[in-house]
Structure formats: C-alpha cells, structure tokens
Write a structure and sequence with these properties.
Elements (H helix, E strand, L loop, with lengths): L15 E2 L8 E4 L15 E4 L7 H10 L2 H8 L1 H7 L30 H8 L17 H16 L2
Antiparallel strand pairs: 1-2, 2-3
C-alpha cells in the first residue's frame, strides 16, 4: 500500500481483520505492530480467501485458467468491502500467490507421530517452537511452544 486507507471513526487498524458476511478469510496488515507515534505511511495488506465454494479439483482448474484481473478481484473482495472507493488510490502494487494453506491437518495418530514427538521432546542447543508441534496451527499454540522453549533455554 502506498498509504493505508483510513479506518472508520476512532477505530485503530487491527493486525488480523475479518469482514462480516464476506466469503474471504480476512486480511492481515504488516505494519500493525510497528512501534511508532504515527501510523505507518506504507504497509502490506495480505488477503486470504479459500475457494471452499467448489471442489478441490474445480478450484485448481479455475486457478490455472484464471486471468490476473479475476484473481485480483476475488482476492480483494474483503478489502473492497471494508474500504470501498478509498482503497484504490492507496494501492501501489498487487502480488497474487496461489497456494494451499500451510497449516498442518491433524489426522488420527498425528500426536503420536515419532518425528513430532522427537521435536517436542528435544533437549539441547536447538529448541523447537511451532504451533504444528501440537497439530493445531493457531497463535496460542505457537506462543505456548515459544514459552516452553524459552523456559528450557533459561533452565527454568
């Protein structure tokens, strides 16, 4: 973003944003955690959208044939719903990445996986802290594993 669009009223810009009643998964704002007195003049907004309205095969086929304008229109739906006409003058560049989400999908036996158990139980100079060690990729799990790694590193 060349400049961030302004939020309504006195609401501060959030890091993770979800637009109610829209099909997207929301968008993340890169400059949210910057420590500064004034808002950042530039930022990156990353929008997420699942093509869950079609089968995986249909979604892959559509993505392979979709024109750039179609991809941009679909990916920007939440941003357009949130900011309307105020969005376009702020956009400097658009990059589209097509990929599946990198989240682990726990299946029966996932928690007893020997490789994951070895990563969870390691006690040495390298410690692992990742939400996927539990099999539930959310911030809280990543924070818990990070806390545990810090305690191990400090000998607590």
């Amino acid at each position: 973003m060349h400049k961030a669009p302004r939020e309504e009223g006195d609401l501060p810009l959030a890091w993770d944003n979800v637009v109610q009643s829209e099909p997207g998964l929301g968008y993340v704002v890169s400059a949210h955690q910057d420590i500064r007195v004034h808002s950042a003049e530039r930022s990156v907004f990353t929008a997420y959208l699942a093509l869950s309205d079609r089968s995986p095969a249909e979604a892959r086929a559509w993505m392979q044939k979709a024109a750039p304008d179609e991809l941009i229109a679909l990916a920007s739906m939440d941003l357009k719903a949130a900011y309307g006409w105020k969005l376009a003058p702020c956009v400097e560049r658009v990059d589209i990445t097509l990929r599946a989400h990198a989240m682990a999908i726990p299946a029966p036996g996932f928690r007893s996986n020997a490789g994951l158990a070895a990563l969870r139980d390691v006690d040495g100079p390298i410690l692992f802290a990742h939400a996927d060690l539990t099999g539930f990729s959310v911030f809280e799990e990543a924070a818990r594993w990070g806390w545990r790694a810090a305690e191990c590193a400090l000998g607590a």
